[in-house]
Prior knowledge:
Blueprint (H helix, E strand, L loop, with lengths): L14 E2 L7 E2 L1 E2 L6 E2 L5 E3 L2 E3 L1 H7 L8 H29 L7 H18 L6 H18 L9 H18 L1
Antiparallel strand pairs: 1-2, 3-4, 5-6
The protein binds zinc ion (ZN) (2 copies).
The site of one zinc ion (ZN) has 8 residues, from helix 1.
Amino acid sequence: MEQQPGADPEPQPAAYCHWHPSVETGLSCSQCGRSICTQCLVQASVGIRCPECGKAAKMPTFDVQASYYARAVGVGIGVALGGGVLWVIFNAIFGGFGILSSVPALAVGYAAGELISASVNGKRSKGLAWIAAGAVAGAYIISLPSSPASGYLFSVITVGIGIYIAVLRVR
Ligand SMILES: [Zn+2]
Ligand SMILES: [Zn+2]
């Protein structure tokens, strides 16, 4: 049976949280239907859940442990430094102008996404997306002094696309 929260037109008697019996609440677990309050609800992809069902619903691929983050940050810093240096060399050779100047941003974005994803066995999370974005932004910042087009709208847009490519891979 599907429970449609809020779809019931009949007034309900006051419900109290299963875990905090003194707290009145209109919320209930989308899995077992027990009443929960804002203190104990767990946000799941399919709605709100009680602490017990929320534990079971946590998908392992989103459960990125601290060690994974440490590895991702290490790879991200590597991509920022390595990508930044290659970017500077690229600008020195090609001048950093025109359509060609978008190549480093896209390449670093691609590399950041692929390498960070590989370092965490393809896991995805919001935190990893920030690390990937930071890696691309870091490489861009390192390349700025060497880029005659730095700050130009086109260069900002290509960096944005580079960040987008990186984030898509690990989000
Ligand atoms: Zn539940
Ligand atoms: Zn509660």
